[in-house]
Amino acid sequence: MRQTLVICKPDAVERGLVGEILGRFERKGLTVAALEHRTIDRDTAERHYSEHAGKPFYEPLLDFITRSSSVVIVLEGPADAGGDVFAVVRTLMGATNPATAAPGTIRGDYGLSPTENLVHGSDSEASAQREIALFFPSVVSSNNKVGS
């Protein structure tokens, strides 16, 4: 199994879309390995989005992700048959800008803004390992399957 991190961001929680979003991943065959409903603190948000530090959208992004609760999820998918759980998740999410996201994707169907775009998904195995360790250190220490 390969693991990736997904965050249903504050706008998804506020709009009551978490069940719909999670259901799309589950119907695709991905399973939940860990899930937590939490408000992401500023320190964690800064570490999570560190690659964006200094960019014009960095501070508004931190304000958004910390404004209210999110649902943080570790999803698993099979390592065989290509095993690219990252591509599966990101395809289901759709383009970052909901105006250009394809119909049938999460952002294409429910997104309202490029800055409040409902979901985050790890973009690679390296990102997934870093992000899962940040949000679920006990999953990493008790489960060596991350990315394997």
Structural class by SSE content: alpha+beta
Specify the CATH homologous superfamily: Nucleoside diphosphate kinase-like domain
* Percent of residues in β-strands: 15-25%
Individual helix count = 8
| Approximate shape | globular
Helix share of residues? 40-55%
The whole-angstrom Rg is 14 Å
Largest sheet: 4 strands, antiparallel
- Main-sheet strand order equals 2-3-1-4
Could you name the ranges where pLDDT drops below 50 across 5 or more consecutive residues?
Answer: 143-148
CATH class: Alpha Beta
Overall tally of domains: 1
The termini sit apart by 6 Å
User: What's the CATH topology name?
Assistant: Alpha-Beta Plaits
**What is the total tally of β strands?**
4
Task: Write a structural description.
The chain has 148 residues and is α+β, with helices and mostly antiparallel strands. It has a single domain (2-38, 70-140), classed as Nucleoside diphosphate kinase-like domain (Alpha-Beta Plaits, 2-Layer Sandwich), CATH 3.30.70. It has 8 helices and 4 strands, in the order βααβααβααβαα. The protein has a 4-stranded antiparallel β-sheet.
Please give a quick description of this structure:
The chain has 148 residues and is of the alpha+beta class. It has helices at residues 10-14, 18-27, 42-48, 58-66, 85-93, 106-110, 125-135, 137-142, and strands at residues 2-8, 31-38, 70-77, 119-121.
